Automatic annotation (TrEMBL):
Compartments in which it is found: Cell membrane
Record-linked PANTHER family: SHIKIMATE TRANSPORTER (PTHR43045:SF1)
Topology in the lipid bilayer: Multi-pass membrane protein
CDD domains (alphabetical): MFS_ShiA_like
Transmembrane domains' residue ranges: 12-39, 51-75, 87-110, 116-141, 153-174, 186-207, 239-262, 274-294, 306-324, 370-393, 399-417
Gene3D superfamilies: MFS general substrate transporter like domains (1.20.1250.20)
Keywords: Cell membrane, Membrane, Transmembrane, Transmembrane helix, Transport
Cross-referenced InterPro entries: MFS (IPR011701), MFS_dom (IPR020846), MFS_trans_sf (IPR036259), Sugar_transporter_CS (IPR005829)
Residue ranges of domain Major facilitator superfamily (MFS) profile in the record: 13-422
Source taxonomy: Bacteria, Bacillati, Actinomycetota, Actinomycetes, Pseudonocardiales
A Pfam match: MFS_1
Keyword presence, Secreted: no
The protein's name: MFS transporter
C-alpha cells in the first residue's frame, strides 16, 4: 500500500507502548495475585486468616493510593519535557520495586518490618504505574492518524489484560509444578524476580522510540506550563472528574474479578485454585481482541456511545454475574466473566483516545493521567471493600449491589461527557469544549 511508510511510525510506537505497558502491568498484577493467595500467610501470619487476607488486600490498595501521586509527578514533567523520558523512568521505578518485593523477607524473619516494607514497595509500584498510563496512551494517540486514534490508542490498553495473562499464567504454572510448601516458601517470589529480565527488554524498546510529534510541535510554538497539574485542575476540573467517574466501574470491577474473586472463589465457593487461575487467564486473553475491536469501532461510531452501552449493560448484569459465580460451576463463571469483560472493553478500548482528546496538548499528560488515576483510588480499594461487604453481610449479593452502583455512577458521568471523535488533536480548545459535539 502507498501509505505503508506513513503508518510505520504509529505502528512502531503502538507496539512499543504495548510491550512497555505489558511489562509494567505484569509487575503490578503479580502483586495482586500473590496478595490474594499467599501474602496473608507470609506477611500477616499472626492474625485471623480472614482478616489476614483483608490486610493483604489492603496493602494491594496502597499502590492505588500512590497512583494519583505518581500520575501527577510524572505528568508534571511529561507536559514540560516530553512523554518519552517519563516512560523510561516509570519503567525503572516499577522494575526496582518489583524485584525488591521478590527479595523481601517474610514476617517470620524480620517481624513487623516485613509488612511495613511491603507497603512501601507497593507504594513505589503505584508511583511507577501512575506515571505509565498517561505517557504510553499519549505516545500512541499523538502518533496515530486522525481517523485511527481509537484503534492505535487501544494498543497500550491491551497491555493490561496481556500483563494479567502473563502474571496469572506464571502463578498457574507454579501452582501446577511446585508443592504448596514450596510455593509458600519461595515459589511466589519467582515472577517478581523474573521481572528484572522483562524490564531490560522494555527499556531497550522504549529508548528506540522518538518523542511525540504533537508534543514537539506544541513545544515549539508555546512556552511550557510551569505547573501543568495545577493549571489543568484550575482550567478543566469538570472534565477531569467526569472522566474519572466514567472509568470508575471499569477499573473497580477489573480488580474485583482479577484479585478479590481469586481469593473468595477458592476459599468460600469451592473452586480449585488452578481452575480459577486458568479461568482468569482465559478471560484476560479474551479481553485483548475485544479491546482492539472496540477501539477500532470507536473511530466509526464515537467514544461516548461505547462508554454508555458498556456501563448500562454492566449495571443490568451485575446481579446475574454474581449469581453465576456463586453456582460453583466454572463454565458459568466464565460465561458471566465474558459479559463483564465486554462491558469493560467498551470503555477501555476507546479510553486512551477519548481522554487525550479532552485536553489541550500542553496539559494533556496531566489531565488524562489525573482522570485515570483518580478512578484508580476507588478501583484499588474495591477488593478490600468486597471482602468487608461479605464479612458484614455474608452475601455475595452485597458485592453485586456494589458493582451495580458503581456502574450507574460511571453511566451518569459518561452521559455528561461530550463526544470528541472529530476533534483536531493538535488544536484542542483551551476551554475543553469548543469542537466537542454532544451525541
Amino acid at each position: 500500500m502507498v501509505d505503508g511508510p506513513a503508518l510505520r511510525v504509529p505502528r512502531k510506537v503502538a507496539a512499543a507502548s504495548l510491550v512497555g505497558t505489558t511489562i509494567e502491568w505484569f509487575d503490578f498484577f503479580i502483586y495482586g495475585t500473590a496478595a490474594a493467595l499467599v501474602f496473608n500467610r507470609v506477611f500477616f501470619p499472626s492474625i485471623d486468616p480472614a482478616l489476614g487476607t483483608i490486610a493483604a488486600l489492603g496493602t494491594f490498595a496502597s499502590g492505588f493510593i500512590a497512583r494519583p501521586i505518581g500520575g501527577a509527578l510524572f505528568a508534571h514533567f511529561g507536559d514540560r519535557v516530553g512523554r518519552k523520558p517519563m516512560l523510561v523512568y516509570s519503567l525503572l521505578l516499577m522494575g526496582a520495586a518489583t524485584v525488591c518485593i521478590g527479595l523481601l523477607p517474610g514476617y517470620a524473619t524480620i517481624g513487623v518490618a516485613a509488612p511495613v516494607l511491603l507497603v512501601l514497595l507497593r507504594f513505589c509500584q503505584g508511583l511507577g504505574v501512575g506515571g505509565e498510563w498517561g505517557g504510553a496512551a499519549l505516545m500512541a494517540v499523538e502518533n496515530a492518524p486522525d481517523h485511527r486514534r481509537g484503534f492505535y490508542g487501544s494498543w497500550p490498553q491491551v497491555g493490561v489484560p496481556l500483563g494479567l495473562v502473563l502474571g496469572t499464567g506464571s502463578f498457574l504454572i507454579l501452582d501446577l509444578t511446585v508443592s504448596e510448601a514450596s510455593f509458600l516458601a519461595w515459589g511466589w517470589r519467582i515472577p517478581f524476580l523474573a521481572s528484572a529480565l522483562l524490564i531490560l527488554v522494555g527499556m531497550w524498546i522504549r529508548l528506540t522510540v522518538a518523542e511525540s510529534p504533537v508534543f514537539r510541535a506544541d513545544a515549539e510554538r508555546r512556552e511550557a506550563s510551569r505547573l501543568p497539574v495545577l493549571e489543568v485542575l484550575r482550567e478543566h476540573p469538570r472534565i477531569i472528574f467526569l472522566a474519572a467517574g466514567s472509568f470508575l466501574a471499569t477499573n473497580a470491577t477489573f480488580y474485583v474479578s482479577s484479585v478479590w474473586l481469586v481469593s473468595y472463589a477458592t476459599t468460600e465457593l469451592g473452586y480449585e485454585r488452578s481452575t480459577i487461575l486458568g479461568a482468569n487467564t482465559f478471560l484476560s486473553a479474551s479481553d485483548i481482541p475485544m479491546i482492539l475491536l472496540l477501539g477500532l469501532l470507536s473511530d466509526r461510531v464515537g467514544r461516548r456511545p461505547l462508554f454508555l452501552v458498556g456501563m448500562a449493560v454492566l449495571a443490568i448484569t451485575a446481579v446475574p454475574y454474581f449469581l453465576l459465580v456463586g453456582t460453583g460451576n466454572i463454565w458459568l463463571f466464565i460465561l458471566g466473566g465474558l459479559v463483564v469483560q465486554a462491558c469493560r472493553s467498551a470503555v477501555y478500548g476507546p479510553q486512551s483516545a477519548y481522554f487525550a482528546e479532552q485536553f489541550p496538548t500542553h496539559l494533556r499528560y496531566s489531565g488524562a493521567s489525573l482522570a485515570y488515576q483518580l478512578a484508580s483510588i476507588l478501583g484499588g480499594i474495591a477488593p478490600a471493600v468486597c471482602g468487608l461487604l461479605v464479612l458484614w453481610t455474608g452475601s455475595l449479593m452485597s458485592v453485586a449491589a456494589y458493582v451495580a452502583a458503581m456502574a450507574l455512577v460511571s453511566l451518569a458521568c459518561s452521559w455528561a461527557m461530550t463526544e470528541t471523535l472529530r476533534r483536531d488533536l493538535v488544536s484542542v480548545p483551551d476551554d475543553g469544549a469548543g469542537a466537542a459535539v454532544r451525541s
